[in-house]
Design a protein that fits this description.
7-stranded mixed β-sheet, Rossmann fold, 2 domains, alpha/beta, 16% strand, 15 strands
Length: 431
């Protein structure tokens, strides 16, 4: 059994074949209509990026005369996702009531289904009190250029009880050692709500020109390829052989037209593999081992929440906005440490997501392993005749130690070309 300690090398770690609809059987099904799946909450995608160059120039000129604040990395990531169309149909940052409603029952005050608060939270409002339009400056680029303009509809403050409730509901823990909890509670309690106009995509376009894609760009590429039924694979780590095989299994099981490998490009916790290394690994794997025009390798600009089940639902929302009909959700999806049960990110769709709230379907993934008997990756529950000795056992810690020493993991775990890239990275960290 190939067993990794931290989400199996990707957010979807171990796998099995089961598709669980998040919608009623009579609802829209893309493969039957020949029409791309609708975005969440609207008939058409409404990204908040100002695409008209003349208008964008005017907004940037306006920003020069506006009071401004440097926002948190999380708020900046929210702006990028809003601008990209991934957070459709939101028009900006949530107010206190919507944030609490989303945390409590995954609904805004007007009834929109949404899994996590999308907020712009600051520690103080010096210089912007009573101001209706402010420039939001990017914390992740030198010089803090303007990222967006916000129309401030309200300035409110979360109470300590508010922060505790949101933390408990979203992260299922208040442990300050949880990286998502620590980040969420470090940026302040004053919430600035209101619509925004997004003027750029921070560092993502420049640092990842071949990989960063907005939701509307992905939809356009899928339309050009003629894809209607698309399986999305979420990852924040390089893909091992089991993940590669899972994509094939899911694609075959749903009779898909294509696979979207969609990697997070934003801020991670210490110890996670940098996005450029992960990108190189995945592209090498796809180039060598997948047929042409079957996989889109893309990335999105967001900071990892490590919120497990709630983040899995958020992943489903914005993959639907990107035009995907299925999302693979596996073991410890979007998890960290031992804060979540191994399959909590699957059960939330059955137990807490209301029927019909999403059109995207969840492809449930269970444990996979390399079978010594069969010489391939298999679903463990599909081989009841196997014993423990029939599988290859390999821990994530063991793999990292091997890579650091310049030793390639066995081919049953990783493609040799991918292992080479990872070895070079791990050895560079030892210098």
């Amino acid at each position: 059994m190939i067993q990794l300690q931290d989400t199996g090398g990707a957010d979807t770690g171990k796998f099995a074949l089961q598709v669980v609809p998040c919608k009623d059987s009579n609802d829209f099904h893309e493969s039957e209509t020949g029409v791309m799946i609708k975005p969440h909450g609207t008939d058409t995608l409404n990204p908040l990026f100002v695409q008209n160059e003349k208008q964008r120039t005017q907004f940037l000129q306006e920003a020069d005369s506006l009071p401004s604040i440097v926002i948190s990395s999380a708020a900046a990531a929210n702006a990028v996702m809003l601008g990209s169309g991934y957070f459709n149909p939101l028009t900006g940052y949530m107010n206190r009531a919507d944030s609490l409603g989303v945390a409590e029952n995954m609904r805004t005050t007007d009834g929109l289904f949404w899994p996590v608060p999308i907020v712009n939270v600051v520690k103080n409002t010096d210089g912007i009190k009573g101001i209706k339009r402010i420039a939001l400056r990017d914390p992740n680029l030198d010089g803090n250029p303007v990222l967006a303009i916000q129309t401030v509809e309200a300035i409110e403050e979360f109470t300590d009880n508010d922060m505790k409730l949101m933390t408990e509901k979203v992260f299922r823990t208040t442990d300050p050692n949880h990286p998502g909890v620590a980040a969420f509670n470090s940026v302040g309690k004053i919430v600035l709500s209101g619509p925004i106009q997004v003027l750029n995509f921070s560092y993502f376009e420049k640092e990842f020109p071949e990989t960063f894609r907005t939701a509307y760009q992905i939809r356009e590429e899928m339309q050009e390829l003629g894809w209607e039924k698309v399986v999305a694979f979420q990852t924040r780590n390089p893909m091992h052989l089991a993940h590669e095989e899972l994509c094939r299994m899911a694609h075959k099981a749903v009779n898909g037209d294509g696979i979207l490998i969609h990697m997070l490009l934003g801020r991670l916790k210490k110890g996670d593999i940098p996005a450029d290394v992960r990108d190189a690994c995945i592209r090498k794997m796809v180039d060598l081992y997948f047929p042409p025009n079957t996989v889109l390798v893309t990335g999105y600009g967001f900071d990892m929440l490590y919120a497990g089940p709630r983040e899995a639902v958020l992943h489903a929302v914005f993959r639907q906005n990107a035009g995907c009909t299925h999302l693979i959700v596996g073991r410890d999806h979007a998890g960290v440490g031992d804060y979540y049960g191994p399959f909590d990110a699957q059960t939330i769709f059955r137990e807490e997501v209301p029927p019909g709230a999403l059109e995207i379907e969840i492809f449930e993934a269970d444990h996979t392993a390399w079978s010594r008997k069969l010489g391939r990756v298999v679903m463990m529950r599909d081989v009841p005749d196997h014993t423990k000795d029939d599988f290859i056992l390999l821990s994530g810690t063991k793999v990292r130690e091997m890579l650091s020493r310049g030793e390639a993991p066995p081919p049953e775990f990783s493609r040799p070309e991918v292992a080479k890239i990872l070895m070079q990275y791990y050895q560079s960290t030892q210098e």
